[in-house]
Write a structure and sequence with these properties.
Layout lengths: L60 H13 L8 H16 L3 E10 L6 E11 L5 E8 L22 H17 L8 E7 L14 H12 L7 E9 L8 E3 L1 H6 L1 H14 L4 E5 L7 H6 L4 E5 L18 H17 L7
Parallel strand pairs: 3-4, 3-5, 5-8, 6-7
Antiparallel strand pairs: 1-2, 2-4
Helix pairs in contact: 1-3, 1-8, 3-8, 6-8
Length: about 350
C-alpha cells in the first residue's frame, strides 16, 4: 500500500499516499486537477435512504487468516514476478470454485530498476456477470519490492512479505467469495485484484499501474458495454490486530454516499472498529476508479507500525479484524448501495 504524510521529517514524498489536498494537484497521469480545497466533514448523523434489516455474511475470520498465511507462504510477490503469478492463479482457482467467472486483464509495466517490460495482470472474478448493475470490490495483490520504511538501513533491502499491506485485502476477497453464492443481493459483484500497485524503488517508479489500466479500460468501453458500476470499495490493510478504520478524505470527497452507507452499516452492526471521524487523505487505487466515474471508498487503516517493514508478517495480523470488515462489507452488499444519479 502507499503513503500518507505521517509526522515525517522528510519534505519529499517517500510513497504515494499523501496527506495533502491541494488545488492544482495532478494525480498519477490521470490529469485530474482539484480546483479548490474543500472542507472535510465526517458523515456522522446522516442516514441513507435505504431501509431494511442488515444481514452480514457469516465471515470466518480463522479461514480468512489462513488465506493470508497461504499467500504469505509464497514469499514476496512483486508485480510481474513468478510468485505474483502463482498467487493470482491460486486466487483465480478459488474464485472459480465459488462460481465466479474469471477474466484476466493483462497489461505491460516497466520495472523502474531494470527498465525491463513486465507482464502484469489484473484479475477479475465476476459473480452474476449477466447483471447490468454492479458493485466493485477490489484490492491490490502485489507487494512492494523492499521494506523501504525500515529505520535500519541494513534492513531496507530485506525480505518484504506484505501480510497486511497486500495479502489482507486479497484474503478477505477470497473469504467474501465463499459467501456470494448464498447472498440475497440484486447486484452483480466483481472481485478485482490489481497488479502493479506499488512497483516502486524509493523515488523510482509509478503507482497504481493496475487500477489506472482498469480505469482506462472502463472508460474506453463506456459506449459499448451494457452495464455500469454503482459503487466500489478498495480493501487495503484491513488485518491490523489493533484495527481502526476512519473515513478517508478522498473517499469523502468523491464517494460520500458510499462512505455514509458503509459507516451506517458498521454502526447498525455495532462494529466499533469503524470510527465516524475523518482520517488521513490517502492516495490509493480508489483515485483512478473515482476518476473513471466509479464512486469508490477506500477502506483502510493506515496507522500500522509495521508498514513497509520486515515486520509486516502474519503474526501482526488478525483474522478477527478481517472478519469485522467482511461483515460490514457483506451487510452493505445485501442491502445494496443508493443508486447513483445518471
Amino acid at each position: 500500500m502507499s503513503e500518507v504524510m505521517k509526522n515525517r521529517t522528510s519534505t519529499h514524498l517517500t510513497g504515494y499516499r499523501t496527506g495533502i489536498i491541494a488545488s492544482g494537484l495532478i494525480i498519477l497521469g490521470l490529469c485530474f486537477v482539484m480546483t479548490g480545497e474543500k472542507s472535510m466533514q465526517p458523515v456522522e448523523g446522516q442516514t441513507t435512504q435505504k431501509t431494511g434489516t442488515l444481514k452480514p455474511a457469516a465471515i470466518d475470520g480463522g479461514r480468512a487468516y489462513q488465506y493470508l498465511k497461504d499467500i504469505c507462504a509464497i514469499g514476496p510477490r512483486t508485480a510481474g514476478s513468478a510468485a505474483n503469478e502463482r498467487q493470482r492463479l491460486m486466487v483465480a482457482e478459488h474464485f472459480k470454485k465459488n462460481g465466479l467467472t474469471i477474466v484476466d486483464q493483462p497489461f505491460i509495466g516497466i520495472d523502474p530498476a531494470s527498465r525491463e517490460r513486465k507482464n502484469m495482470v489484473n484479475l477479475i472474478g465476476s459473480w452474476k456477470p449477466e447483471r447490468t448493475r454492479r458493485i466493485l470490490l477490489s484490492a491490490h495483490y502485489d507487494t512492494r519490492p523492499f521494506p523501504d520504511e525500515e529505520t535500519d538501513p541494513d534492513k531496507r533491502r530485506g525480505r518484504f512479505i506484505g501480510a497486511n499491506d497486500g495479502a489482507s485485502g486479497v484474503a478477505l476477497l477470497m473469504e467474501i467469495a465463499n459467501h456470494l453464492p448464498k447472498m440475497e443481493t440484486e447486484w452483480g459483484v466483481d472481485l478485482v485484484l490489481f497488479d502493479g500497485e506499488e512497483l516502486v524503488y524509493g523515488d523510482k517508479g509509478d503507482y497504481f499501474l493496475g487500477s489506472r489500466h482498469f480505469a482506462r479500460q472502463y472508460l474506453a468501453e463506456k459506449k459499448t458495454r451494457k452495464w455500469d458500476y454503482e459503487a466500489g470499495l478498495v480493501l487495503d490493510m484491513v488485518a491490523d490486530k489493533d484495527l481502526m478504520i476512519t473515513q478517508e478524505q478522498y473517499s469523502l470527497e468523491y464517494a460520500p454516499k458510499v462512505v455514509r452507507e458503509i459507516w451506517d452499516a458498521a454502526e447498525k452492526l455495532g462494529e466499533r472498529r469503524f470510527r465516524k471521524r475523518v482520517g488521513p487523505a490517502v492516495l490509493d487505487d480508489h483515485i483512478p476508479l473515482n476518476q473513471a466515474g466509479i464512486p469508490t471508498a477506500d477502506i483502510i487503516d493506515f496507522d500500522y507500525p509495521a508498514w513497509h517493514t520486515v515486520d509486516d508478517v502474519p503474526e501482526r495480523c488478525s483474522g478477527e479484524s478481517m472478519a469485522a470488515v467482511g461483515r460490514v462489507v457483506t451487510a452493505w452488499l445485501e442491502l445494496g448501495p443508493t443508486p447513483k444519479r445518471r
